[in-house]
Amino acid sequence: MITLYTGPTPNGRKISIALEELGLPYEVQAIDLAADEQKQPDFLAMNPNHKIPVLRDDDIVVWESGAILLHLGERHDPEGLILPKDPKRRLEAIQYAFFQTGGVGPNLGRLGAALRKEGEKNQEMIDIFQGEMERLFGVLDRILADGRDYLAGDYSIGDIMHYPWLKFPLDLGFPGLLKHDRVVAWLNRIGDRPAVVKGMGVPG
Ligand SMILES: N[C@@H](CCC(=O)N[C@@H](CS)C(=O)NCC(=O)O)C(=O)O
Question: Of 3, 54, 191, 192, whose CB has the highest number of CB atoms within 10 Å?
């Protein structure tokens, strides 16, 4: 039995997308972040870092979205749909998953927080994180320049890690993103997948 502890955020949706891609039955436990449910003792016993997503899979509890996707790929993906079986391709998929946790995740997260801040905004922070996001859009464009459809060639956890985050600037029409046609086409390709549409709607 799989239980996903999640919320309506990009990090949570990475996991619901992967579960939908793999066609796995799972139960959703929506965590109310605004009410600090993630800081209650029951939740902290699963994840001392008080953040969603957390996955319980029978005897295993795992947190950190990248680690959860690796677990799902290792335990539940016999066809290599999200985590390739070929060692070289598998490493490439893992590389792009790590790239998201060190790149788009923290930078877009902090940019969003700086833009949402009430009262006087810290323009220096906005400039730093926006500049880094623009650089990262350029890096993604360079990766896709050889005509590949997905970051690691075939669809993988590398794409799943990026999509829910980059859907924000795509929907908001960030010029720094929209100027990269290849990046926009890649995101739309991912967004057209039925499992992605379903996963993005979790929790309902
Ligand atoms: N590096 C973590 C980040 C998870 C994360 O930032 N979760 C946020 C929501 S998107 C959260 O639960 N925040 C609540 C808190 O910090 O108390 C991952 O990839 O799983």
Answer: 54
- Output DSSP code: residue 174: -
Cα 6–11–16 angle (5° rounding)?
60
Distance, CA 106 to ligand 1 centroid (Å)? 10
Q: What is the pLDDT of residues 44-79, one digit of tens each?
A: 999 999 999 999 999 999 999 999 999 999 999 999
Q: Is 16 in the pocket of ligand 1 (CB under 6 A)?
A: no
Radius of gyration of the chain (CA): 17
Hey, what domains does the chain have and what are their CATH numbers? 2-81+196-200 (3.40.30.10), 87-193 (1.20.1050.10)
Q: How confident is the model at residue 196 (pLDDT cuts 50, 70, 90)?
A: very high
Q: How far is the CA of 47 from the centre of ligand 1 (A)?
A: 10
